[in-house]
Design a protein that fits this description.
Rossmann fold; 7 helices; seven-stranded mixed β-sheet; alpha/beta
Length: 199
């Protein structure tokens, strides 16, 4: 049975940063630099290595709403470029889908100040489309995401004959995903820690 791993990249990065954080604070994004994602995934799937691992991430662009926000988006673009090279070195395919949209926060009721932030849109849709394209008998598809928006696509893939494995996070088990998938694996804090860079 062919085993394919589909990853919502930002969801996995968020999950790892939460697992490696301290005092209810996420670890800094730098914890992901030189992270051994493939080692983590292969240990989670210890009974059978994947034939293919596909990482879905947003298309990025520079935004110029403020000088600080332009700098933030440039840093995001540079980080993604480094991450793509890292994933390529681990034989993980990076697919750009969706985009990051600039949004302005509601003004502060006290001072009226608002800030710009980035909101990821469409990555889950891209992953769901890929899931349905791959759905067939004698295929096992591993989904690494805690996004319940994927539930309809997971159900459709199962109806097409695929076996679905859901990989979730120790700090955030999602019952709906576990109950819908054929099997579930959990990324624990010790496991996430094992594959971080020891530099």
């Amino acid at each position: 049975m062919k085993r394919t791993v589909l990853i919502d990249g930002e969801n996995l990065c968020y999950g790892i940063r939460n697992l490696l954080g301290q005092d209810d604070q996420k670890a800094d994004r730098t914890v992901l630099e030189d992270y051994n994602f493939r080692g983590l995934i292969e240990e989670v799937l210890a009974d059978n290595r994947p034939d293919e691992i596909v990482w879905f991430g947003a298309r990025l662009r520079r935004y110029d709403q403020t000088k600080e926000f332009a700098q933030k988006t440039e840093q995001s673009i540079a980080f993604q470029a480094r991450q793509i090279n890292l994933l390529k070195s681990q034989n993980i395919t990076f697919v750009k889908v969706g985009y990051l949209r600039a949004r302005e926060s509601d003004p502060c009721s006290a001072c009226g100040h608002s800030e710009w932030f980035l909101l990821e849109k469409g990555v889950d849709v891209g992953l769901a489309v890929s899931l349905l394209q791959r759905a067939e008998k004698d295929a096992e598809i591993v989904i690494i995401s805690a996004d319940t928006d994927l539930l309809p696509a997971i159900k459709a893939a199962k109806q097409a004959g695929s076996k679905i494995m859901s990989v979730l996070y120790e700090h955030r088990p999602i019952a709906a995903l576990s109950q819908t998938a054929d099997s579930t694996r959990i990324i624990s804090r010790p496991l996430a820690e094992k594959y971080r860079s020891k530099k």
